[in-house]
Structure to design on (318 residues):
């Protein structure tokens, strides 16, 4: 009986460090992708390294753990009276920064789920660039679309 | 037996704790853009040579407000644009042709041609739309009827393309 009790205590102790790693996973949309003024027929590119116009997510989570990043990316932006404008994402339009710094990114394809490893402090940032492709007769006005990042601790 | 149940309960807790690690979370940001006014081009006035006589060249200058061809452009205010042209080498009347050469151009922010700038349509130009988003473009040329030019009405199309 005593032996069983020690097994229980051991299991509880084992459980403690596992739970201690369970830092809440939080993700914040810090900044949207801003194309600014766009002329009909002239594509506008925003690089993920653009400190003013690139999109940014800040993530706080597990220390040193593998994490899956996956995006839901729009194909079009919606404008006045339902007008649509294509928006595209390239193979290196997302960047992962283990130091939460725009100047220290590793590019990845936002169109594919990507596994990254969190640093020991658990604080990272993900940056996003994109290209707006207005047609030659694109209706004038404000256009918007939503970019969603889902983070899963593996 | 009581301890065994307790062990199972703790094991369940540990397992539960482990499951909690597999967290998922998400957030969204917005992509925004402000599309400016599209370009609109109107062929406002034909390039008109009027009566032409065999063997006598006739020129209409781009500065000729009455007979020069004119395109009216509207778009985003104070924005540079690129003008390019498709220029016919001949005018046609049925199966007969007549050479048209020496194209000239003027672009200006006002329809009166005040502030106009001369340019070569063959080379194109890169003017800037006015503060109200307007631009006027005139085209002139010379026709060279042969001495045995067949009488008739000769026409051809001049196409101007404007892009930001």
């Amino acid at each position: 009986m005593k032996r069983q009790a020690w097994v229980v205590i051991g299991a509880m102790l084992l459980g403690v460090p596992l739970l201690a790693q369970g830092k809440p996973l939080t993700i914040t949309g810090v900044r949207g992708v801003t194309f600014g003024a766009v002329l009909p027929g002239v594509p506008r590119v925003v690089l993920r390294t653009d400190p003013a116009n690139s999109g940014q997510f800040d993530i706080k989570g597990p220390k040193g753990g593998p994490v899956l990043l996956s995006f839901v990316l729009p194909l079009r932006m919606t404008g006045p009276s339902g007008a649509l404008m294509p928006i595209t994402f390239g193979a290196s339009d997302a960047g992962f920064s283990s130091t939460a710094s725009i100047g220290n990114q590793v590019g990845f394809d936002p169109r594919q789920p990507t596994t990254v490893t969190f640093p020991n402090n658990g604080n990272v940032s993900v940056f996003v660039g994109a290209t707006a492709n207005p047609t030659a007769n694109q209706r004038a006005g404000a256009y918007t679309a939503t970019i969603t990042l889902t983070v899963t601790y593996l | 037996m009581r301890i065994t149940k307790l062990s199972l309960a703790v094991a369940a807790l540990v397992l539960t704790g482990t499951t909690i690690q597999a967290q998922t979370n998400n957030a969204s940001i917005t992509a925004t853009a402000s599309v400016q006014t599209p370009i609109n081009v109107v062929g406002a006035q034909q390039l008109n040579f009027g009566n032409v006589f065999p063997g006598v060249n006739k020129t209409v200058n781009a500065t000729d407000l009455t007979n020069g061809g004119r395109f009216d452009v509207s778009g985003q205010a104070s924005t540079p644009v690129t003008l390019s042209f498709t220029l016919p080498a001949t005018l046609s009347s049925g199966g007969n042709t007549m050479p048209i050469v020496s194209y000239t151009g003027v672009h200006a922010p006002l329809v009166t041609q005040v502030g106009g700038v001369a340019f070569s349509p063959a080379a194109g130009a890169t003017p800037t739309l006015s503060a109200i988003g307007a631009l006027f473009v005139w085209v002139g040329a010379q026709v060279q009827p042969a001495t045995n030019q067949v009488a008739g009405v000769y026409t051809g199309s001049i196409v101007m393309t404007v892009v930001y």
In short: The longest strand of chain A covers residues 141-153. Chain A has one domain: 23-153. Chain A touches chain B through 66 residues (CB under 8 Å).
